[in-house]
Design goal:
By secondary structure, the protein is mainly alpha-helical. Helix content is about 75%, strand content about 0%.
Length: about 240
């Protein structure tokens, strides 16, 4: 009973060593390359998602700029005065311009591709090292790791480094190598989730704001008119 209780405490507070010590230099290098490869793939996937979401955000905001003048020229009753609509069009135009410049400077597609290629190269090195390890064991020879260290370093230099978030996701995805349990695992998952969604907060708020503005404009919802010079219940005449 005491042993079970002790194991439960160790599991709950994750008191085990997170990473087991590996004395074999070949296995140690292989484990390091496996972790790096996983981190690179996670970084590539994360940046690719940001790129796609940025494209969606730009497209959605652009449709808002197109929709507002079209609806102004129709006979649909609107709940904002023309000055407010013109102000919103200018704001959206500037926001799209700034957002597009930032995304262009970030080079998401290029970075994602480079990180993915780096992960592939490291995986190839792992396969080569594993084959050489089997050959060395069968012939009782000592494996020279100098070449693999150099190739490993060269592969890493061909892309940017992964972030702390990518490393955090990787250790959570590799329970056979990193023993993280109980409250610590829950904390790491929460931390990873918070770090992951940070880049999406601002574009999501912009999308929601535009969507709510258009719904208010058509009188479907009544969130913004009282703050922007409109009547939430009565259509506004053009001024």
């Amino acid at each position: 009973m005491s042993l079970t209780f002790k194991n439960s405490i160790f599991w709950l507070f994750s008191l085990y060593p997170i990473e087991q010590y590996e004395p074999d230099p070949v296995k140690k290098l292989m484990n390091s390359m496996r972790m790096t490869s996983r981190c690179r793939f996670n970084a590539s996937s994360r940046i690719n998602v940001i790129s796609k979401y940025s494209f969606f955000t730009t497209t959605f905001l652009s449709l808002g700029i197109i929709f507002i003048p079209l609806i102004q020229n129709s006979d649909v009753p609107l709940h904002f005065i023309s000055k407010v609509l013109n102000m919103m069009q200018i704001f959206l135009a500037v926001a799209i311009l700034v957002y597009s410049v930032i995304n262009g400077t970030a080079r998401y597609d290029v970075r994602s591709l480079a990180l993915n290629e780096c992960g592939d190269k490291v995986k190839d090195l792992i396969r080569q090292l594993r084959d050489e390890q089997h050959k060395a064991q069968s012939s009782s020879n000592v494996l020279d790791l100098t070449k693999y260290h150099e190739d490993y370093k060269e592969a890493l230099n061909e892309s940017e480094n992964h972030s702390r978030l990518d490393y955090l996701l990787s250790i959570l995805e590799m329970p056979e190598d990193y023993k993280i349990t109980g409250l610590k695992r829950a904390y790491y998952k929460l931390k990873a989730c918070c770090l992951y969604i940070i880049p999406f907060i601002l574009p999501t708020l912009m999308i929601i704001a535009e969507f709510v503005f258009i719904l208010d404009l058509l009188g479907i919802s009544h969130v913004m008119p009282s703050f922007l010079g409109g009547d939430p219940l009565l259509p506004c005449e053009s001024k």
